[in-house]
């Protein structure tokens, strides 16, 4: 009976050891992993049989030699050539050990060390299980090992945790039973032994079943991987296989989600006329957990002086301009970062080759065939101005190649995600309005922009479904991926784009190319993702669904300029009429209704008069309170209407002063003695715009320079954008 118990304990201990070995194939490039499992079993068998050491050691050594011979040495075993190879391997790796160049170890030597480790572990387990009869320490180590590799590697340990729990409970129970048998020094019958084992097995199975069936808490802490990778110098998105989203620009987007730590390290400075989105590449294949690029080909070489690539058709109106980018040492992309409409680059320190991925827009930079990061370059670009009328009327057929590549959805996309997409766009009849409806959906409906406490979906969860229905908390990757998936669910080709936002304005009078341009600092924290939607006869149009971010693409109203009159909005003539009719003296209205009731019924007249005695005081008391509570909104509506109708210095100054009040109460209080320019810069930094600085410059010109007219048009639109952000 005692031998049976020891046999079961040994088998349980061996399977616990295997839990340390199963991840080998996933975490390393180890091949023929089964050989190592067999060697571990061989060492355990010798220990169980209690073979004397002077026999067990040669047997284990002989098994080790046979394994290394079969894997790495092609010569006949123990021949002169065999010994020569063995000597060379040992000497080379001994030199690497002496020089502490651990990365130079050969596969032969690494396998030798691992086999020796299995040898030692088998003896250690024999000591714990048989001599000391204490397996708890090894079991705790096993749980720690499994949870660590589950957290920090692609290895999925859910099944391993369950197996380890079952094995641990059985081994501990068997050890206790074996201890009882040894202490009593009595021979236990088979029937008694089975009766003793049955409750143990039943208790373990019941505990496993209960644990699997009971509800579980969701993760209580943010994923630690992004923070640790950031602290240890990691950068980019998903720095490795199975990595998660963290601060900065990176290549691996296969698994999105997780919190990150803000990194304000300067990456490059851009000198341009207006704030731009800096595009790097797009990705097409949504996997349910992240994005893959399946469109690496074709790749064509392009002349830096004439790149000849555009995301939109020739018919789109553009505004020719020039700019300059200066990278820091932190930048190591090996690709161009470019604004929409870039046509050429120049002023390069060294000759540069451009390899264009025509499907994704990625432009790799090479020199002599090797990837390089240019230190700086100037560029020509034509910022597009998309015609809203053309976008709304775009009704042609999408090219087959576009539909094949940019309507893909995996099976993980849930039906409720598709139903939500259908509900959001159901009221709209054209592609642009549908895209805008999805883009605007995330600005409300309970969504929250956050870079902390952002969850990573479980193995069976879809990334978009989790964000849209469960957490509603995330950053750009959550918003942009969700918009692409919802559009594709409605048959609208869309793709996921990544790069950088425009950064923070540092200088407003940077002279370049004979012009006064703006200088922007772009940091790792400005790494961003957004959406491009395809429109027939127009091309790829950018959209920005992320809360707190503004699409810097220019959209024109499609007005017929030949008529000389702007296109009139249908609701414009009717905006004030209903409100004016509702305004007035409520008592007068009530008296007129009371008079009509008196002609019909005297009792009705008395009832209405008594009712009015209650209504009128209530209105007098409540209406001022309501107007006071909502004063910022209705005053904003008033100033917005006034400024939109007539952009005069008076209307602008009044609107600007009201904007200061709203920002002070809703966004950020203006410090005592803080100048308007400093306050404007702080607001723009918060909203990632330059709108407040433009408005402040115009206000100072009117107030301090006593100018009699506005210096630029479109101020009402800038003012309205800031008011909406402040009040939201």
Task: Give a short synopsis of this structure.
With 728 residues, the protein is of the alpha+beta class. It contains 24 helices and 19 strands.
What are the defining features of this structure?
single chain, 728 residues, 49% helix, alpha+beta, 24 helices, seven-stranded mixed beta sheet
Question: Could you characterize the architecture of this molecule?
Answer:
With 728 residues, the chain is of the alpha+beta class. The protein is 49% helix and 15% strand. It has 24 helices and 19 strands. The strands form five sheets. Strands 1, 6, 7, 11, 15, 16 and 19 form a seven-stranded mixed beta sheet that branches. Strand 8 (353-357) and strand 9 form a beta hairpin. Helix 3 (33-48) packs parallel to helix 6 (107-131) and helix 4 runs antiparallel to helix 6 (107-131). The longest helix is centred in the C-terminal third of the chain and has 28 residues, at 602-629. It is elongated and about 105 Å long. The N and C termini lie far apart (75 Å). 30% of the residues are buried. InterPro entries: Bact_TGase-like, Papain-like_cys_pep_sf, TgpA_N, Transglutaminase-like. Residues 549-561, 579-588 have a biased composition (Polar residues). The chain crosses the membrane at residues 5-22, 34-55, 105-128, 135-155, 161-178, 190-214, 611-632.
Name the beta content range. 5-15%
* Strand runs, count: 19
Shape: elongated
The share of residues in helices is 40-55%
Cα(first) to Cα(last) distance is 75 Å
- Broad structural category: alpha+beta
| Mean pLDDT over the full residue set | 80
Low-confidence stretches: 230-246, 560-603
- Total count of helical runs of at least 4 residues: 24
Major β-sheet annotation: 7 strands, mixed
**Radius of gyration based on Cα positions:** 36 Å
